[in-house]
Design a protein that fits this description.
It is built from 4 helices and 9 strands, in the order ββααββαβββαββ. By secondary structure, the chain is α+β, with helices and mostly antiparallel strands. It has one domain. The strands form 2 sheets. Strands 1, 2, 3, 4, 7, 8 and 9 form a 7-stranded antiparallel β-sheet that branches. A two-stranded antiparallel ribbon has the order 5-6. Strand 8 and strand 9 form a beta hairpin. Helix 1 packs across helix 4. The two termini are about 30 Å apart. The chain binds zinc ion (ZN). The site of zinc ion (ZN) has 5 residues, from helix 2.
Length: about 220
Amino acid sequence: MKLKEYIVVKGIISCETGLRIGGSKDSLEIGAMDNPIIRHPVNGLPYVPGSSLKGKMRSLLEIKAGTYQKGSGRPCDCGSCEICILFGCGDPSRSTQMTRLIFRDAMITSDSEKRLREAQEEKGLNFSEIKNENWIDRNTGKAGRGGLRTQERVPEGTTFNFEMSIRIFENDDSAQFLDKIKDGLGLMQQDYLGSSGSRGYGKIKFLNLTFNDKAFNI
Ligand SMILES: [Zn+2]
């Protein structure tokens, strides 16, 4: 296999509702949030890990193709379908191809950083919102016991810089790859990113998308 070029896809991820990508409690001080979001370890700003974007796009494309294996929780490992070629094969021993897609971590845009810094100064927010959720006992109509949980989210309106690279080898059809990526981005807009999507979290929109600096729509 001979590498011909890299194609770069860029855009903006805009949060249409609060977004929650869970982080680790271990990295925070005792007494901090129950359910913290993932943050950059140095500047403390929220970001969207490339692994979250990759995993979500892949699972949605597999659901659409009918190859999604709900039981195993593992991605397709046939090694030969278009999704395995683009995203990599779950079973390296069966892989005959180099993974084509490289997803970068999506860092917060400077506009959003400014907006969240202002909110921090005015309201003491830590670049996030805290959402309290309860479950309601259907028999009593009251809050269920032990039901209150606190969830940290990236506020609606926050934007992140999206970027991915596509390795193009000789004999690859870059237009065909782009079609698949457009399909995946469109599915992500219709579905959700992060957790608790069925309860309103994680609706996103992709803006200003480019393919090697040429604008495209999904
Ligand atoms: Zn496959």
